[in-house]
Design goal:
The complex is a heterodimer of chains A (264) and B (210). Chain A is mainly alpha-helical and 264 residues long. Chain A has helices at residues 6-25, 31-57, 61-81, 90-116, 124-155, 157-165, 170-173, 175-195, 203-210, 215-247. Chain B has helices spanning 41-48, 70-76, 122-134, 152-168, 180-186; strands at 8-15, 18-25, 30-34, 55-60, 63-64, 77-80, 140-144, 172-176, 189-194, 197-201. The chains are: A mainly alpha (264), B alpha/beta (210).
């Protein structure tokens, strides 16, 4: 395995710097954004690298849990920020975060205990990257599906209410919208599975191979991760859409669009 | 022998600028409500159908709306909104138990059910929406300008179908209408809504038949 030096990274950074200069010449207006994002990548990843180093040296369930909760809360904020018409108040944060907790944590613990079976089961070398992959992907599924759910409920309020007027239950009146929201949250991971290895070489596998792992081992890990991500995204999306759809109605099965935030 | 409770009873209903208002509607009654736009007629019907939060209580044959699941209440106290809404490709897809009344009674041909809803006119959709509501066999009809998009001939047909349903099913009708002639033809009670309250008016020359 070729170990990278700081010089190697600086050379790669020069490429980004040249791109920024070129963007400036073309007046695209994204040069600054580009440089800030590149700097964030370097700083954030260095910090997490140091943090993981410390974490790996001090294997303790408490530290792993603290890290996991921190990751969950940040991912929850991201899910909230990506929905235009999210629920008002703490609901807007809680629906996504709770669903991610439910799906990512369950699937991660399941994989650690049942599949990997390392001792102790929370060995951070496995636990943190696994949880990270799961959170990152369920985050996409949940934010896409919740955005779809709340948008569709807003746009199709007259359809939902027409169905309520005809004596349908709330869950019948929103069934189509709920189904479509779940579908839209799961399509990206289904596409990713279908394209894996043919159109795209998944990043994790590529990374492992670059780091010197045998391709077949890397492939096995990638398949495992893909399946875990799919299970996590599916569970999280279904949980979020189910909870969200229910919260669109009150006890008397009235559509409560005032529970959604106005568009800014 | 104690008197049976009215079919629909509304007690101290309040919603936004409406109310508090109380109303008794017996089976066989057809009660018309008029009033300028923005006076809250549609709000009133929506509140009776329990589609919006409101104060006060509604009863169907003495049973409070809260004692029934909201969907059961709405199936029995059916609201026809001014704009009909369709979510499946063809009109026929929205009828679970068939069409309750031959369509030629409302001036439509049966073939219309198979056409894409997007190709129907608003008047056709309005009449089909009434059929869809009646197929639920509601006890109370809350009709929000059900003939607004219809020509005089079809307006008469729809009025006749509603009267026939009211008699054969012992139902009550609450009908929002702007048309004084229509009120004379269909109603036995007439209220005008103004500043959130209902005022009863005499109907001169009523042609209402029990």
């Amino acid at each position: 395995m070729v170990t990278l030096t700081i010089t190697d990274l600086v050379i790669a950074a020069v490429l980004v710097g040249l791109l920024a200069l070129l963007s400036l010449r073309l007046q695209t207006g994204i040069s600054v954004q580009l440089l800030v994002a590149a700097a964030r990548t370097a700083i954030q990843l260095s910090l997490i690298g140091l943090l993981l180093k410390v974490l790996f040296a001090n294997v303790h369930l408490g530290w792993v849990s603290l890290m996991a909760v921190f990751m969950l809360l940040v991912a929850g904020r991201e899910v909230m920020a990506r929905q235009e018409r999210r629920f008002k108040g703490w609901w807007g944060y809680a629906v996504g975060t709770f669903s991610m907790f439910l799906s990512s944590f369950t699937v991660t613990v399941f994989a650690l205990v049942v599949i990997l079976g390392d001792s102790p089961w929370y060995t951070p070398q496995y636990a943190i990257p696994l949880l990270g992959m799961l959170l990152g992907n369920t985050m996409n599924g949940i934010s896409i599906s919740m955005d779809r759910l709340t948008h569709a409920a807003w746009e199709q309020r007259s359809v939902i209410e027409a169905r309520l007027m005809l004596g349908e239950r709330w869950d019948e009146a929103i069934s189509e919208i709920r189904r479509q929201a779940i579908r839209s949250g799961m399509i990206p991971i289904i596409n990713a599975m279908a394209a894996a290895g043919i159109i795209s070489l998944p990043g994790m596998m590529t990374g492992q191979i670059l780091a010197g792992a045998a391709p077949v081992d890397a492939v096995k890990y990638q398949i495992l991760i893909m399946f875990l991500i799919t299970a996590g995204t599916g569970l999280g999306t279904m949980a979020a859409v189910t909870i969200g759809a229910k919260h669109l109605f009150d006890k008397r099965q009235r559509l409560c669009l005032d529970r959604l935030r106005e568009l800014p | 022998m104690s008197k049976a409770p009215p079919l629909l009873q509304i007690k101290n209903l309040r919603r936004l600028m409406i109310g508090p208002l109380s109303l008794d509607v017996d089976s066989g009654d057809c009660l018309c409500i008029s009033g300028p736009s923005g006076s809250g007629k549609s709000q009133l019907l929506r509140a009776i159908a329990d589609l919006d939060p409101h104060e006060g209580e509604s009863f169907l044959e003495g049973v409070a709306s809260n004692e029934l699941a909201a969907n059961e209440w709405r199936a029995r106290v059916g609201l026809l909104p001014p704009e009909s809404c369709w979510w499946l490709p063809r009109a026929i897809d929205h009828f679970h138990d068939g069409v309750p009344i031959p369509l030629d009674h409302i001036g439509l041909s049966g073939a219309i059910l198979e056409q894409p809803v997007s190709r129907l006119s608003s008047g056709e959709k309005q009449r089909l929406a009434l059929m869809r509501l009646l197929s639920n066999l509601p006890r109370v009809l809350l009709l929000d300008e059900p003939t607004a998009n219809l020509d005089p001939e079809n307006t008469r047909r729809v009025e006749a179908v509603i009267a026939e349903y009211r008699r054969s099913h012992d139902a009550a009708v609450v009908w929002v209408s702007h048309d004084g002639d229509q009120v004379r033809r269909v109603a036995n009670q007439h209220y005008v809504i103004a500043e959130g309250s209902l005022q009863q008016r005499e109907i001169e020359g009523s042609q209402w038949l029990r």
